[in-house]
Write a structure and sequence with these properties.
With 346 residues, this protein is an alpha/beta fold. The chain is 26% helix and 27% strand. The protein has helices at residues 12-23, 44-48, 61-65, 81-89, 108-117, 134-140, 163-169, 176-179, 184-203, 308-315, 318-321, and strands at residues 3-8, 27-33, 57-58, 71-74, 93-96, 120-123, 144-156, 212-220, 224-226, 229-231, 236-247, 250-260, 266-267, 276-284, 288-291, 327-328. The longest helix is centred in the middle third of the chain and has 20 residues, at 184-203.
């Protein structure tokens, strides 16, 4: 069966999603929604730097929702609930990397929209959306007496070329005083909080009501040249955010992101080691896993290969999400999701 798919937004993740839809043997790209007037009316191939596709991008919500489609891959920078409700009520399933991993009784209006449209919504991604819940749960089947689960990211932010995000949202290149008010604990905390609660729910922990959070920073002693310009000496060049799910105030699930502009000349000194994602259990056996290949091979590379993973986690979920019952569907509701092999001529 072929599923007709709309791509919603064409940022870095959206462009990788388009490439994935075009490569998937069970999917057909039938429409693309864009937010900018400069992309409106362009062939999607021109937007993505690939051969022409014959699919023309539109910035008209009415036009895109009028298309006959089974699913929308929804990849804006942040979710717009009003927009999302319109998509669902139009009768289109949604997969997205911008939240809804484990809604757990929240978002009643969105769930109602699923009922109206007779469709489902699946939140996925990579971190959160994979590293911090799907993969730990899979690996947990190899353990007994699980006492603690740790999920941790180690990334060099010199590889990330989104200037607005790096400087004005992540607050790199700001003073310690300014960066201490970072919105990231809240922005990422919702997603990682859902991850933590999914793990706890499935493993059998009854968590304390609130997550415990910490934010550590380091400044650079020298100017650092990056894809988003110079990070000046004396400003923030390294940050660590941690979220902990606790039982009786004892941490049982820890999610951490380590973001550094390199390791050199930091004050205080930090060591990143090689870029990677880690999952580790305090359990019997003390299982651990390290993920490589989700970061560029060279520091400062323009294209972040890690953006392929959240895009493909969405794309590969479509054949499993479309047949699902209406409403929110999580990893706990779906069968094993798999990718597809390269199509070879016989």
């Amino acid at each position: 069966m072929t599923y007709r798919v709309i791509q919603w937004a064409t940022g870095y993740v959206g462009q990788e999603s388009i490439k994935g839809i075009l490569a998937h043997p069970e999917l057909e790209l039938v429409g693309v929604f864009v937010y900018s007037d400069s992309k409106n009316g362009l062939d999607v191939g021109e937007i993505c730097g690939i051969d022409p596709t014959g699919v023309i991008a539109t910035s008209s919500i009415d036009e895109i929702l009028a298309l006959d489609a089974d699913c929308v891959v929804y990849t804006p920078m942040l979710s717009d609930q009003t927009e999302l409700i319109r998509i669902l009520e139009s009768g289109k399933n949604v997969v997205t990397p911008v939240g809804y991993i484990f809604p757990s009784g929240r978002f009643a209006e969105i769930e109602a929209a699923c009922s109206v449209g007779g469709v489902s919504l699946h939140g996925t991604g990579i971190n959160p959306g994979g590293i911090t819940e799907r993969f730990p749960l899979i690996l947990s089947a190899l353990c007994r007496d699980i006492r603690h689960v740790r999920c941790e990211e180690f990334s060099d932010i010199r590889n990330y070329g989104a200037e607005l995000v790096v400087r004005e949202v992540m607050l790199f290149g700001k003073t310690l005083e300014v960066a201490s008010n970072s919105p990231m604990l809240k922005i990422l905390g919702d997603g990682f909080g859902q991850s933590i609660r999914m793990i706890a729910s499935e493993l059998g922990w009854s968590l304390d009501n609130d997550l415990r959070t910490t934010h550590a920073m380091a400044i650079t002693k020298v100017d650092i040249e990056t894809l988003v310009g110079t990070i000046e000496a004396g400003t923030v060049a390294a940050q660590r955010f941690t979220w902990e799910g606790t039982v009786n105030d004892e941490a049982v699930i820890t999610v951490t992101v380590n973001w550094l502009m390199g390791e050199e000349n930091l004050e205080p000194a930090w060591s990143l080691g090689e870029e990677r994602f880690e999952i580790a259990f305090d359990a019997d056996p003390p299982l651990s896993a390290t993920f490589h290949g989700l970061h560029p091979e060279e520091v400062g590379a323009e294209v972040n290969v890690g953006l392929i993973a959240p895009a493909m986690h969405c794309v590969n979920a479509i054949p499993y999400v479309v047949p699902a019952a209406p409403g929110f569907v999580t990893y706990l509701d779906l069968p094993l999701i798999a990718g597809r092999a390269t199509q070879r001529s016989k």
